[in-house]
Amino acid sequence: MLPNIAFICVHNSCRSQMAEALAKHFASDIFTACSAGTETKPRINPDAVRIMKELYHIDMEETQYSKLISEIPPADIVITMGCNVACPALPCKYREDWGLDDPSGKNDEAFIQTAKQIEEKLYALMDRIRRKQLPLQD
In terms of DSSP H, where are the helices of the chain? Predict the structure, then answer.
């Protein structure tokens, strides 16, 4: 069974949604992915949606929506986006914080930079999972 990764941030409307979309796009053979927040927004950030379509041809609005932590399945790995807030205790086997700045309200370059940072961190995470360098075994 593939490990499940949960990407977590405050509103589940931008960074965590981008991470979920990129994980499903690039790593669906390595792990399953979902995203959630401690709060929600009525919709995914429109700038994030647009940039993901332009860069990766991914339409996040087709299959994703803003959801609470209580709505996602148990996670083997929890990745927080760098929200500078206390995340609730979410049981997992491994946890890390990616320390990403929120591009919301900024220019396209900020969204592009965030997407590229997520992609880079995602590939590094995929490599560590493939090499069995994370404590995922029971």
Answer: 15-27, 46-56, 60-63, 108-130
Distance separating alpha carbons of residues 27 and 22, to the nearest angstrom? 8
Looking at the annotation, which residues are catalytic? 9, 83, 87
* Strands lying side by side in the sheet with 94-97: 32-37, 4-9, 77-80, 94-97
Whole-angstrom distance between the N-terminal and C-terminal Cα of the chain? 12
Digit-coded pLDDT (tens) for 86-105: 666 788 999 999 999 999 99
Q: At what angle do helices 46-56 and 108-130 cross, to 10 degrees?
A: 60
Q: Distance between CA 66 and CA 13 in Å, rounded? A: 6
The CA distance from 85 to 137, in Å, is: 29
> Distance (Å, rounded) from C-alpha 57 to C-alpha 53?
4
